[in-house]
Structure formats: C-alpha cells, structure tokens
Amino acid sequence: MADDKSIVATSGALGRWSPGVVTLTLLALTLSILASAVVWKQLSERRHRETAVHFETHRAEIALRIDERFRGYRMLLRGSQALLSDSKDIDPRTLKNYLRWLRFEEDYAGIQGIGFTMWIEPVALESHVRAMRREGYENYQVWPTGPRDGYSSIIVLEPSDWRNQRAIGYDMYSEAVRREAMERAMRTGQGALSGKITLVQETTDDVQAGVLLYMPVFAQGMPVASEAERRAALRGWVYMPFRMSNLMRQMFVQHPDALRIQIFDQAEGPASMLYDSHPGRHDAASGLVSVEHITLAGRDWLVRIEALPGFAPEVDAKQAELVSIVLMGLLFVVATWFFSLTRERARILARTTDSLRRSEARYSALVNLAHDGIVATDTELRLTFVNPGFLQMVGGEESSLLGRPLDEMWSGDGQESHEQILARLQDGQGKRYEVEFVRGDGKRLTALVSDAPLNDGYGSMRGAIILLSDISERKEAERRIAHMASHDALTGVPNRLMFDRLLAHTLDQSRRYQHHFALLFVDLDHFKQVNDQLGHHVGDMLLIEAVKRMQGSIRSSDTLGRRGGDEFVVLLPETALRHDAEIVAEKIRTALEQEFILEGHQVQISSSIGIVLYPEHGTDGDTLLRRADEAMYRAKGGGRNRSHYCG
Ligand SMILES: Nc1nc2c(ncn2[C@@H]2O[C@H](COP(=O)(O)OP(=O)(O)OP(=O)(O)O)[C@@H](O)[C@H]2O)c(=O)[nH]1
Ranges for the PAS domain (predicted)? Predict the structure, then answer.
C-alpha cells in the first residue's frame, strides 16, 4: 500500500508542468521565433534587394534624364546659333521673333530663357550702345561699366519678362565663371556649361544657384577651323540661363519624395552645390547612396542620390509586419494550447489522484478492519503482506510470518501441492478451497481460501492476493446439525434413520463377503410406570443410564441404536452364531435389571430382547427388524426379562 508521503509527493508533482510539456512548449516557442526570424530576414533581404533595384532604376533614370535634357537644350541653342550664323548682321529682332515662334517654354519647361550676348570690341562699345538706344532701349548700357579688353552684352533674352529684362546689357564676360564657359565655348566651337553662378535675374527672394549654357556664334563665311580663327570670327553667344531649383524640380517631378538628389559643380561641397531636393534636411544615412559624375557640355557635374527613410517599397514592410503578426499569433495560439492542455491534464490527474487516495483510504480501512485474513504473496507464495485479520486468525507475529510460504501453514484433504497452486495461478486461475490451520496456540481452524493471481501489466504473475475466512464455527455447526439428524437427541446413539443406513451398509458388506451378523431388539419392561410414578424427566434419566449400560455390554464394533420410546436395536456385525448373540443379549438383560438410583429413587426395571441372525431370519433390513421385533414380543409374552431367539 502506498503511504501518505508518496500520495502527497505525487499530487505535488501534478501542480507543475511535466518535463515533456515544458520541452514541447519551449520547442514550439523556439520554432516560432526561428520561423519569424527566418521570414523576417528573408523579407528584409528581399526588401533590401528590391530597394536596391528600385534605387538603381531611379539613379540611372536621373542621370539619363539630365543628360538627355541638356542634349535637347544644346539642340535648341544650335537652332539659334544656326539662325544667327547665317545672317550677315546680328539682328536682335530676327532672333526674338524666332524664339517667340519656337515657344520653347512649352516643350522645355524649366528653362529661364534663351538669349544672345554679343561680343563687343572696346572700340565698338560706344556705337553699340548708341545703336541699342536707337532700337528703343532708352537707358541701355553695358554693365558693369568700366574699361575692359572686350565686352559682351545680353541684347536678347526671351521670354522678355521682368526678370529677364533685368539682364539686358549685362556683360557676362566680365565675370570669371561665365567668362570661363564663354571662352571654352569659343575655343571648342561647342556648347559649354558654366560653373555655379547667381543669375543677374535673381532678386532677394528665392535666390537659386544658376548655370549658363553657351553656344558660340561665329560670323558668316569666316573660317572657324582653329581656335585663333574662331576667336577672330566670334560674334557672340546664344545661351540659356538656368535657375537650378526650378529646372531640377520640373525635371524630377516624377521621382519619389524620399529620394534626395543633390547636384554639385565638379566637386562635392556646400560652395559647389547646385541643387538639393531636400535642403536643410539631415536624416540618418540609409546606406543607399550613389555619386555619379556626368559631363554636360564640357562641365563635370557630380550627382549624388540618396534614399531617405521611407524610400523602401511600402508593400514589403507591410507584408513583413503582417507575417510577423501572424507568426506571433500562431505562437500565442500554440503556447495557449499547450498551457490549456497541461492545465487540463493536471486537473484530471489531480482529480484522479484524489479519487485514488480516497479509494485507497477506503480499501486500506477495509483491509485493516476486515475480520477475514487478507494476505499478499510473492511468486513463490511467500507472504509479503498480512492484515490484522490474518494475524488474529492464525495467532502470530507479522515479523515471524512474512517470508514464510503460506501453504506451509495449512493442510487439507486433497489439497493441491505447492507447485500445482503456483502453476494454476501462473495460468491466471483463481480458486476457492478449504484448508485447516493449526494456530499458534495449537487450536485447529478451518479456513475457506480464495486465491487470485496478481499480474503485472504484461500478463506475468508477480504474486497472489489471498482471502482467508475462518469457517471453523460454521463447520462445527454443520457437524452438529448432521449429528442431530442422525442421532438420538436424548441418548446420543444413532437414531432410526442412521441405524437403518448402518444396517443397509452392513447388509451390503455381508452379502459381498458372505458374512453373518446378529441383530437384537431390546424393549424395556414396564417403563411407562417409571414415567408415571417418578416423572418423565426421571424416565429420561433412566433411558440415558440404560443406554450407557447397554453400550458397556457390547463391543466398540457393535452399534446400539434407538428406534423410539423405550425400544433399542443392537447390530452385532461380527456375531454370526446364535449362541454368541444370546450371550450378548444376556449381558444386556443382566445390566439393565440392576437397580438404578435416579434422583435418590431406587428404580428397578428389566428388558425383553428379540434375537435374529443374518441371513438365517432375513436378507433385508425390514425383514430382519420385523422378525427381531416379533422375537422381542415373544420374550415379553414369555414373561419379560428374557431374550428370545427367532424361530
Ligand atoms: N421418559 C420418557 N418416556 C418415554 C420416552 N419415549 C417413550 N416414553 C414412554 O415410554 C413408555 C413406553 O411404553 P410401553 O413400552 O408401551 O409400556 P411399558 O410400560 O414399557 O410396557 P411393556 O413394554 O409392555 O413392558 C410410554 O409410556 C412412553 O410415553 C422418552 O423419551 N422418555
């Protein structure tokens, strides 16, 4: 039996998570986290790849767009260049008309204008100013004023809006950055882009960096093969002023807002910055930056492109979040499931344990309080457990009984051997049988044994459980009842039923072995008078004493039986001769005629005895008894107190 400590220990263990469930839960947790990490990593990598591709697409497009745009601008200038180169004299009105007719603003948005700046030798400056004033430019002058080696002057700038009007007469050649580009255009005969300048059209508001694109205009018919020839043939420059922010904003209107575009003139730095799509913004570096050198009309630009936060394709970020939420949800569901499962199992186990504990307590009480003996044995029937009932039954100490083979302590008619009991139990067969114990105090007891094999979970016998009930009293009662049914209650000698059976048995034996025997029929004389004179109970006493005297007159192999009243029969199985039978009858008669002292009364009786022999007077019980009875009556008739041999 489990003790209380083991029960407490078991129930305590149920409150905790079993190692298996903990392992599974941790495994699920780890797997979910790993799965989330893998998906997250893959999405991140994919996102990075896609972002890089996305970025690369924009980068290539930006560079291409700038290049193409400036090719277009050069084409525009070539048109003006061609127009002016074909005229003998520069007629500003012809150029104006051409430019207005061209309506370049419609197709080339972002251009501040297209103009012509005339090269003026110092000697021709005054006549030029006069001519311009004649043309209607009242306060016209070439500015800044002052003596120089040569002058240039903007005489046409379309569209002729207020801003561009501010530039008329300006000598760009007087300013170093512009002059460098103008010289380069003149030297190469090609378009030349200037470095960073501030256009004279600028006011104090929204001042932007500017650049100028020049195309030289040479005099018609003059040779322009060499640099010297080109210098000699120079008439001026058609040019385009650009306000960089306006130009680039228009150019990059289709690019994402999260893409920072910075353009520098030749080298990176605040002083050389031509354009910044996000001026004043200082975001953390995203890592995606490209710096590209492009050459536009002989001038190097450095185009820096940087992906700002938010540039990554939105869809992937959302997808990653969604997957993460799903995986976290899955993790939560799995964890909750394990938790619930474990709690449920713990609850069931606790309930079962509680039930088992109560059940065990009940059975423990039953076993301990049982009047019957309950024992457990090992595979060799050696006692491993005995209950108090068994100790009480057999009278011994538990310590001296444990380890003893149980069947050593009992005996019984037709009892199985030790090996037979074990073989039967190993066969799974239990049995009920009676055995006799000799108690410690020497008394005998009869026990009803019920044995049953105790199996392990795999069908092998690992012992036996045996119940023993003390049935000694019941056996005694059975014996008493059986005795009462076959014996005379007053005298204790076999009654009529029993005697007839004995007689039948004797007849069988005698017939089989040709034996002879004698039968006496004894009737007391005048017994009624004893009853009448001294009372019935004295009559009883007389009957008891008479039986004792008769039993004292016969052998132990002879049987005395009471037929009823004061009639008795005596079976003499070993008496074959008349003479011998008459001697026994005489002994009985003599014994009975002796005086009885009963409760102080002197009582004198006698007896009449009939004698028959087997097989002489009959071969069955009825005949023999009837003829013995008749012989007894003959004796009565002969005067009583005598015997009469049938005949
Ligand atoms: N006390 C006592 N009397 C019994 C018992 N059984 C029968 N009797 C009596 O025994 C007497 C037997 O009567 P009988 O045999 O007819 O009379 P008897 O006086 O013996 O006469 P004879 O046999 O002719 O000598 C009756 O009075 C019965 O009532 C018994 O168990 N106890």
Answer: 359-429
